[in-house]
Amino acid sequence: MTHSKTYFQAVAATAQGIDEAAVEALAAALDKVRRDRGRLFVIGVGGSAGNASHAVNDFRKLCGIEAYAPTDNVSELTARTNDEGWQTVFSEWLKVSNVRTGDALLILSVGGGNAERGVSMNLISAIDLAQERGVKVFGLVGRADGYTAQKADRAIIVPTADEKWQTPLTEAFQAVIWHGLVSHPLLQTKETTW
Questions:
Q1: What's this model's pTM, rounded to 2 decimal places?
Q2: What is the DSSP code (8-state) at residue 136?
């Protein structure tokens, strides 16, 4: 069997394994954020940072949700990393944004953070701050045992059909899931051009 055949079989199996009830619950939670005039902060690292930027565009343009991605401001991101350290880059950004009850944090991540292993500590710091301030935490992640999945109010776990493709499948399905959310009748307020 070819690589492509095997890979796309894993894609199909991953799609079949998505928890549809979790997606519906997240759509309802995001609708509440919008109705309450809260803001949505979308945070990711690496490929998930690129996804965060794209997701912010879609939530703003198609759903009318005030949304931001800290990684879109590369000058602040790198200044904070240089001066304060990578671990607090998102939590300090959220403090300046006066993150508060009614707002929500959407974490896009493969692992979701792991304090014991010191992985994605910046996501963990952001989640901790959000919880201290009564901010809802949502996640689109690839691991049920990660910090995000364990701490989030709502988390969608991308099931891994094949462990060797956990990163590409998780990051790809972050996009599939958020596109499903922004086209959900509960959330979408503007039609796409195509």
A1: 0.96
A2: E
